[in-house]
Amino acid sequence: MSEYIVVPPYHRPTLERYIVGDNGGLTYTDHGAFDRSLTVRYELRLPRAVMPRNAVMYIWHESGGDSKRFEMARERLERDADLFAVTISMAELADSFSMRTGLFYYAFDFDSRYGLRYIRQSRIGLPELRGDDFSDGAFALTVYERKYPAPESWYGGIIYHIFVDRFKSSGKCEPKPYAKMEPDWYGGIKEFPAYPGAPLANESFFGGDLYGIRDKLDYIKSLGVTCIYLSPVFDAHSNHKYDTGNYEHVDSMFGGKRALDRLIAAAKKLGIRVILDGVFNHTGDDSKYFNKYGHYTGPGAYNSDKSKYYKWYKFFDYPDDYESWWGIKILPRVNSSDESYIEYISGKDGIIDKYTSAGVAGWRLDVVDELSDEFVERLAQRAHESAKDDVPLVIGEVWEDASCKIAYGHRRRYFLGDQLDSVMNYPMRAAIINFVAYRDETILMRSLFKMWEHYPHEVCHAVMNLLGTHDTVRIITTLAGDPPDGFKNAELAVKKMTPEQYARGRRLVELAYMINATIPGIPSIYYGDEAGVEGYSDPFNRLPFPWGREDVELLSFYRDIGELRRNNDVYKKGELFICRFNIVGFMMFGRGDGEHTYYTAVNRSDNVIIVATTDEDREVLTSAGDVGANEDGVVIPPMSGAVIKMSAKSAVSAENVEEKETEQKETEF
Fold it and tell me: What is the mean predicted confidence (pLDDT) over 388-402?
């Protein structure tokens, strides 16, 4: 087994961006999204060896058309590079395209001794020289105009995502007449479809409720949690509640409005906010709005075309042929552009006001890409206007890069300033899994570069970083369990990991959560992941919490990470520095606050990695695996990781790395 000594450098890209202050001062930024009020200086360093003669920056709108051409001035000659620069007002740029905000792209070319050459992004997001065109490697530039205060009070926190029926039962709530109550909390999932996508009534309940969550607030707080995200709590027929029956009522099996009020009040005393799942793209067919089965008084859309709810839905052949979510007939889709529906949800004294007044601190918007822009804008506006003592957090369920998302042929405008504060960071989840399970560090590096460059900095620090949700396979099963291919649902319902798989999975979960909790954003814990809960896709990822049977070793690690974030403000707004090494399976990045740099180093290679430092007061803040130290630095064996705090001056720059060349192998800056 080989040893590699690596020296942590600051991230030093060839392309640098600076925000120009009112007095002309420059503030370095690695972001590529800017408020239209800002002026930005772009600096491009071109290798002296290619003898650059000039440089040009081209910017074009994402819809295409002619680009704007900006000549870059050669400002100085450095030791091995020529510096070219240009300063651009974001407002003037957007106005020149007859827009206030928008998504743009840019690239560079320059004349050299070898002819015309181009600058494009490499596969991990860094600038690279190229001989042909830059059509497939342009940089993104979002110009936005934020209408609401940034959710800074949310930065540095931790979200705890709870599927209410499966977390904790207080025994205080009566089941509905049709509910099939599972007598054994630990007996597993008995109700499941015969095959994925098959119809399922979802009438099997374990009895978790909001009173039960309140009873476990001290446990939740011990994880460092600052926000509880609840699966839907509105009155509904199913156990998952994504088939809303009545937005105005909290489901009686969860304890009703009184239980929600008490949970919010008790959580607030512990510094924990509560946000709700806003399922506004569809309702249940068994709802006061659709009323297919006549369970509600007054006509629903299904009962009469004179119903006040009729135009909320789209009927192809009234009443039985109607638009539903992904063809699931129990979930008729709502027309979110309908003014009466928008007013019902986001108008004065509407649903948003009702729950804001009860103390709800924010919303996670289910399938936000299927909601109209107007609906999302009005909801965000109402959420911010009705919040009196706090800045709300509005999170969208987006599974792709949300800065350039196209849904149903329409470019979404989530981050242009008047819609979302945050999104669920599914791309980062996939990247972390690829690295931890399959040792591919390039995808993770690319995802970090991409988020940091594409998302406004307010979003980067508020993005919801997740490893698991009610829609994904449990993280420990994903990382170390058998693939589900070839197994029937009846087999997956009872399938467990072997002891060897579980032990490996526990370590991989620790490494994954270490990354997830130290990159920019707000980490989210799906209830039970911290306790070692296994499970395949829905509904097997929704097992009840194993009270009294938790994996205490894994739980202790999650608590250590919570303490790390609670005690170090760098995880609120710290800059991101990505260290680049050509070592397969090794990933290292830093968060900086000017005084210290907090490095996360995770080793999935086959080699021992030594993170070299001459800093005498270096400190390993937390670790997973057999991390140690010697005279060379922090020793990180395979399947291990550490968070290391060093003074900023100990971070080795590109200039003095040359003195350590004899100690480094296969290392690139």
Answer: 95
